[in-house]
């Protein structure tokens, strides 16, 4: 992960733009990565989740073109990716450029007038760490397109939600990654010092105060740097199991199963696998509601207990954890964390822990030592605060 400040990246991405395209960009926009505090694997079940925007952001220096071509350069990738707007498809431009091109494709399909762009991106969000570098990339480009083409979609929550929906389509339909809607909503709608309660059934959002520093605590993110090959396939398998169970139970999504009806619903499923998947989803949605209540009441101990329960449910019922995530969360707890859980899709990626501010170093050190002892790749830990959503920087 990079420690560069926003103004350093704004400057270097502008310089890179001039170098790549021979003139200055019209502006620089950025959008944050996210961590989900609680409510994992609930978005595609019409459930609740509670992400915050990270201080780590992806920056896009952008200028309009006279034709309908899109040219893209990334400080994190080699070469230039290029495509004509009419040719954008799951096959073209392929690679990382699909995340950028997909946004323009989705905006145009929505009837919005969008022309060709030159784009240079640079990012402080680690890739593939479960912190949503893909949504940060899409949302930075969407913000730029909205401003440069006078779409005005950054000016209201409705406009931002519409942009988020287009970014989800970019990721699903052009980049070919079957994700739910949480990441893009977080990147466009989360406020500073707040978590975003996102109802994935109605699309409703609510800001929930989240300022751990005010009570002498910190949110510690640990990128385990573990990447397990099963990742992509397993996500689809979990989604399928949820859809099958919902069909058996005669509901559109598992959101419709109230916690009180869970035991009766489980009795109606005949596979143990589906029972465990449903139990995770229904109890996890309830934990989001409880965590919001606890945050509003200032009861961090309870939030910590809910983190622990969420992790156990993801590990045992949903089976998306891995050894590295289990070791990191257990070590954090043993060294004074109020609670710790994996965050993101699982099978690697990151975990989060609520830690007394004066123990951040100790916990990070203990997790690093535990990883060394187990022979894992060294993890990267950093404290984060709830940060600003997508905006124009320059
Ligand atoms: P995550 O979103 O958890 O970081 P994903 O696999 O969803 O992981 O997205 C990572 C992919 O997004 C990268 O492999 C790359 O294709 C693309 N991407 C993200 N950030 C950038 C960037 N700054 N430059 C180029 N591609 C990027
Ligand atoms: Mg992603």
Lateral strand order in the biggest sheet: 5-4-6-3-1-13
Bound molecules: adenosine-5'-diphosphate, magnesium ion
Radius of gyration: 21 Å
The major β-sheet equals:
6 strands, mixed
β-strand amount? 15-25%
Number of domains: 2
Q: Kindly provide the name of the CATH class of the largest domain.
A: Alpha Beta
Alpha-carbon distance between the termini?
23 Å
| Class based on secondary structure composition and strand pairing | alpha+beta
In terms of quaternary structure, the protein is single chain
Number of strands: 13
> Taking all residues together, what is the mean pLDDT?
96
Run of helices and strands = HEEEEEHEHHHEEEHHHHHEEHEE
Low-confidence stretches are none
> What is the level-2 CATH architecture name of the largest domain?
2-Layer Sandwich
Describe this structure in words.
This protein is an alpha+beta fold and 394 residues long. The protein has two domains: 6-209 and 387-392, Ribosomal Protein S5, domain 2 (2-Layer Sandwich), CATH 3.30.230; 212-384, Alpha-Beta Plaits. Helices cover 42% and strands 22% of the residues. The protein is built from eleven helices and 13 strands. It has helices spanning 6-21, 97-109, 133-148, 157-174, 182-189, 231-249, 262-267, 272-296, 300-316, 323-334, 360-374, and strands spanning 27-36, 48-49, 51-64, 69-74, 80-84, 117-123, 194-199, 205-209, 217-227, 339-343, 348-356, 380-384, 391-392. The strands form three sheets. The protein has a six-stranded mixed sheet, with helices on both faces. The protein has a four-stranded antiparallel sheet with strand order 10-11-9-12. Strands 2-7-8 form a three-stranded antiparallel sheet, with helices on both faces. β7 (194-199) and β8 (205-209) form a beta hairpin. The two termini are 23 Å apart. 51% of the residues are buried. Bound molecules: adenosine-5'-diphosphate and magnesium ion. Adenosine-5'-diphosphate binds next to β6 and α3.
């Amino acid at each position: 992960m990079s420690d560069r400040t926003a103004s350093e990246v704004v400057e270097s991405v502008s310089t890179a733009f001039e170098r790549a395209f021979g003139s200055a960009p019209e502006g620089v926009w950025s959008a944050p990565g996210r961590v989900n505090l609680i409510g994992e694997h609930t978005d595609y079940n019409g459930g609740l989740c509670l992400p915050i925007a990270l201080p780590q952001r992806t920056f896009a220096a952008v200028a309009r073109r006279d034709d309908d071509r899109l040219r893209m350069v990334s400080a994190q990738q080699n070469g230039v990716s290029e495509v004509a707007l009419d040719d954008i498809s799951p096959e073209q431009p392929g690679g990382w450029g699909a995340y950028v091109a997909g946004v323009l494709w989705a905006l145009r399909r929505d009837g919005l007038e969008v022309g060709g762009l030159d784009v240079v991106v640079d990012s402080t969000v680690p890739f593939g760490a479960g912190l949503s570098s893909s949504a940060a990339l899409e949302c930075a480009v969407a913000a730029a397109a909205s401003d440069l083409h006078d779409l005005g979609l950054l000016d209201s929550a409705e406009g931002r939600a519409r942009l988020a929906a287009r970014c989800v389509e970019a990721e699903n339909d052009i980049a070919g990654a079957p994700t739910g809607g949480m990441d893009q909503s977080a990147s466009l709608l989360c406020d500073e010092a707040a978590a975003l309660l996102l109802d994935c059934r109605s699309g409703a959002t609510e800001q929930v105060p989240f300022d751990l520093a005010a009570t002498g605590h910190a949110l510690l993110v640990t990128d385990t740097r573990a990447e397990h090959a099963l990742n992509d396939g397993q996500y689809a398998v979990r989604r399928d199991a949820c859809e099958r169970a919902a069909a058996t139970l005669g509901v559109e999504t598992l959101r419709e199963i109230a916690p009180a009806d869970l035991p009766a619903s489980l009795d109606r499923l005949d596979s143990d696998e589906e029972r465990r998947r449903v139990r995770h989803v229904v109890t996890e949605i309830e934990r989001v509601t409880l965590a919001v209540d606890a945050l509003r009441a200032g009861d961090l101990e309870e939030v910590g207990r809910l983190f622990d329960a969420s992790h156990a449910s993801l590990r045992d019922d949903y089976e998306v954890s891995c050894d590295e995530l289990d070791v990191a969360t257990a070590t954090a707890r043993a060294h004074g964390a109020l609670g710790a859980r994996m965050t993101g899709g699982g099978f690697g990626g990151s975990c989060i822990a609520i830690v007394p501010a004066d123990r951040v170093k100790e916990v990070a050190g203990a997790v690093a030592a535990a990883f060394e002892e187990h022979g894992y790749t060294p993890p990267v830990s950093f404290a984060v605060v709830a940060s600003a959503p997508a905006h124009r920087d320059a």
